[in-house]
Description:
Elements: H1 2-20, H2 22-45, H3 50-71, H4 78-97, H5 103-127, H6 134-153, H7 163-191
Amino acid sequence: MSTDYTDGKERRHTAEIFRDNWLWLVLLGSVLILAGALAILVPAVSEIPASKILGSVLVISGLVQIMQAAKMLNWIGFIWHMMLGVLATIGGILIYMDPFAGVLALTLLIAIIFAVHGLTQIAFAIRVRSQAGWHWFLVSGFIALIVSALLVAKLPYSHSFTPATIAGVSLLFAGCAYVAIALASRKAAAST
Length: 192
């Protein structure tokens, strides 16, 4: 009986956190959408290596996610957001620095980063399933897992179809998930 009360209290607290920080969530989603678009477009139209673009994009989006997590410090979902931000930042640094020899090792590193990112997003979606728009995180997590599988399955790559292109799609979906849950939280707050 007390478990139901705790779950209900936690759901209300989560709803308040999303409602109070909806603008930060929209900002984070927008950064991820921009990052995904850059990861897709820039390698196709410039001489900048795709790994440098993807690494830079992940570092920037990871840092924004860490800042956003700090805004939700007193919430149980803080750890999920912080883990996603730290993962993206560290993964971006590793991809940018390219410490492993060869395209195969770099592609596998990107695949591992997106697999872990996808699993973390799915776990987060399950954690906040009582919130409007939670399914966007579930979809985004599955997209990240599909991206990871595609990265491994499609070796080697041509110049026009790079790991950054595929990863950019995952970042676009993650950004849309943040914007969707933020706007759903804001709409739910306005209707109450």
